[in-house]
Amino acid sequence: MTDKSTAGRRQRTVNGTRVAWVTGAGKGIGRALALELARRGVTVAVSARTEADLETLAAEHPRLHPFPVDVTDEAAMAATAEAIRRDLGEVDLAVFNAGTHKPVDGRTFSAQPFRTLMEVNVMGVIHGLAAVVPRMVARRAGHVAIMGSVSGYRGLPTAAAYGASKAALNNMAEALKPELESCGVSVSIINPGFVRTPLTDRNDFHMPFLVEPEYAAEKIVRGLEAKRFEIAFPFRMAVFMKLAKVLPQGLYFALTRRMVRHR
Ligand SMILES: NC(=O)c1ccc[n+]([C@@H]2O[C@H](COP(=O)([O-])OP(=O)(O)OC[C@H]3O[C@@H](n4cnc5c(N)ncnc54)[C@H](OP(=O)(O)O)[C@@H]3O)[C@@H](O)[C@H]2O)c1
């Protein structure tokens, strides 16, 4: 059963948010988050490159509206933000979630995975921020949320490009928070552990504390409602990775050396 029949009944709003924009909403965490926001009464513009995914999603709830875009295209992101404003209204909440992963084998080092991940994960978010922040600052209202990862806390084998992209986002969010807050704009960084999605379905290793996208969506919405700066989950993974963050390097490398796959 789709949610069309229940639309309008569950009306818990998210801090009065009327219009939200979620990128990377065609699959995985973004999809579940867009649905959760729509169920709480938010009108949601959903973006990804694959239009069919967005159409299928929009069929699940009348408050979901497809705005296909590639986040690596700065002009297209600006035009999409404008189209959302025109069609749905001012964006109150933007969740820049689109991202991808490519493992890096340090022993056959090449620039390509870094270029791809920096383009999508970092520049994709920056294009989104450039498209919405100036108007939010002018209105002295709004909330931007950036999808990071606990893998941005410290370097992990095979995640040299992914971790670096997520570390960049964590640093950027911290840098932006005080300035934007002083203009009435809230900033959040979302740092999940492992979530079962098409992205992690590709992993051939054990993923500790793996959670479902619906769990992630619920945690994210609660964090956004509380206007929390960092939204990290699941709790056990977040604590484990935060402890790893403060381990002395010698001890940390003793652990990560064991994660290296020998050929
Ligand atoms: N799953 C996890 O365990 C986990 C943990 C920590 C952080 N994260 C982060 O959470 C975010 C979502 O991950 P996920 O696991 O839900 O991934 P996913 O299942 O692969 O979904 C990613 C979504 O992003 C879209 N996307 C990818 N490249 C894009 C581009 N260039 N322009 C526009 N949209 C693009 C994809 O659609 P199209 O391909 O159709 O564009 C898809 O809808 C990512 O930033 C990821 O790094 C995930």
From TrEMBL:
GO molecular function, one term: oxidoreductase activity
Annotated transmembrane regions: none
A single Gene Ontology CC term: membrane
Keywords: Oxidoreductase
InterPro entries given in the database record: KR_dom, NAD(P)-bd_dom_sf, SDR_fam
Signal peptide feature range: none
Pfam families for the chain: adh_short
Name of protein: Oxidoreductase, short-chain dehydrogenase/reductase family
